[in-house]
Specification:
This is SET domain-containing protein. The protein has 13 helices and 17 strands. By secondary structure, the chain is an alpha+beta fold. The chain folds into 2 domains: 9-37 and 238-415, SET domain (Beta-clip-like, Beta Complex), CATH 2.170.270; 40-212, no CATH class. Bound molecules: S-adenosylmethionine.
């Protein structure tokens, strides 16, 4: 299944859940079960200049990224390390990324398509989501030419059969937009006439269900508080990670290290949060775990088309409105189009939520929040142990998948005044 983890996960078909990844052997907390590289990576920034940031918003909105690997570029006034010689608009972190982009993500066709789209001003006034969808479709069209096998992988991902009206109307707009501005595809393209409307609908639906967001770096506000205004820098399609189903109390979580200098910086790494036996389904949470029941159900239905009946939802479905409202701490206001990633909304930790103190009797999953949720304000991240050492000894260092903070497991428990609890 994964580099160096081929025997850890099996792909299975589960009634009512579609394809799923299941533990092929007992798995340990911290164990890396998947490292996946994107078949498609595209910027989350609007194509034309966004409105100026409000005075209260994070300075990180001015951050620029390499248009190929999405590492941070040095801040202005430094000149971009390697601008595209044709358009000058796109910048790359060095000659290596410039050359790789020219052959893959920023081919002459992509360069011309994006330049014409910007010059046409047809996206002006459209929501950012439409800009990002246009970027995705141009990247997908290019993928069909430069890597037909990866395009087939994209097509093999799940989409929704019954398309929401807004997807269809977005697809109509984007279909005529791309038909009017994109240059002819290079010889050998399987879509010499461009994408049909039906294909655009299908691709947008696959993107919505399967794209992972690579977030802007975390910045701190002081007092250990995380700046909650972090947004997405790029979206990626990860063909194997797309098989993870959702659980509101996940047993694995994903990490990325986009700004690391090493190769594969845009890879997603999935690590076990705790031990699980062979045969257990391995699930991620598609959003921060501290959203309340109503918001989770609404989001899963609207964005992913299913009603969750995980153990946590079964318990919380019986809570009164007051009890559920109490935990409505992630201001989940929709419209972020983030897919399977962290929200930038305000978040609180499990102990701040008062779960451990107030709900222990009627909330058997309280241990999860105490033990596996980051306690930095506004972070909303999930903690997983570092990978076991080479002699298979488990690590007691927990890493947050959002803010990256490392702490010893017992520090976490002591900070919350809780006993270390076993499942
Ligand atoms: C990213 S895909 C996951 C892989 C997918 N099951 C497949 O067959 O390719 C997301 C979709 O999987 C299904 N899914 C994920 N988690 C689920 C769950 N807990 N219960 C039911 N369906 C789920 C939903 O159809 C959702 O839109």
């Amino acid at each position: 299944m994964a580099d160096g983890a081929a025997s850890l996960l099996n792909l299975a078909e589960i009634d009512g859940r579609g394809r799923a990844l299941v533990a092929a052997q007992p798995l340990r907390g911290g164990q890396i079960v998947l490292r996946d590289s994107p078949v498609l990576l595209y910027s989350a920034l609007p194509l034309t200049k966004p409105p100026p940031p409000s005075s209260s918003s994070s300075s990180s909105s001015a951050t620029c990224y390499c248009d190929h690997c999405f590492r941070i570029l040095p801040p202005s006034p430094s000149p971009p390390a390697a601008p595209c010689p044709a358009c000058g608009r796109h910048a790359f972190c060095g000659p290596g990324c410039l050359a790789a982009a020219a052959a893959t993500s920023h081919t002459p066709w992509v360069c011309q398509a994006l330049s014409r789209l910007v010059a046409s001003r047809l996206l002006d006034g459209q929501p950012v989501e439409r800009h990002v969808q246009a970027r995705f479709l141009i990247a997908a069209c290019n993928l069909a030419t430069v890597s037909p096998s990866n395009f087939q992988l994209l097509l093999s991902l799940q989409g929704r059969e019954a398309h929401a009206d807004d997807t269809v109307s977005a697809a109509r707009f984007l279909h005529s937009l791309l038909a009017s501005v994109c240059p002819p595809l290079p010889p050998g393209s399987p879509f010499p006439q461009g994408f049909s409307l039906e294909l655009i609908v299908a691709l947008l639906s696959k993107d919505k269900l399967n794209a992972f967001g690579l977030m802007e770096p975390v910045s701190s506000r002081g007092g250990g508080e995380v700046d909650g205004e972090r947004s997405v820098r790029a979206y990626g399609i990860y063909p194997r990670a797309s098989f993870f189903n959702h659980d509101c109390l996940p047993n694995a979580c994903r990490f990325d290290y986009v700004d690391s200098a090493s190769d594969g910086n845009a890879d997603i790494i999935v690590r076990m949060i705790h031990d699980v036996p062979q045969g257990r389904e391995i699930c991620l949470s598609y959003f921060p775990v501290n959203l309340n029941y109503a918001n989770r159900q609404r989001r899963l239905m609207e964005d992913y088309g299913f009603a969750c009946d995980c153990d946590r939802c079964k318990v919380e479905a019986n809570w009164s409105d007051d009890e559920n409202e109490h935990d409505d701490i992630g201001k989940d206001d929709d419209g972020d189009g983030e897919g399977m990633d962290e929200d930038a909304d305000e978040q609180m930790s499990g102990s701040e939520m008062g779960i451990a103190e107030e709900k222990e009797t009627d909330f058997p999953h309280a241990y999860f929040f105490v033990r596996y949720m980051c306690n930095r304000k506004n972070c909303g991240g999930t903690l997983a142990p570092l990978p076991p050492s080479s002699d298979d000894a488990p690590s007691d260092i927990m890493e947050c998948n959002v803010c990256g903070q490392l702490r010893r497991e017992d520090e976490e428990a002591e900070a919350d005044g809780e006993e270390d609890m076993d499942e």
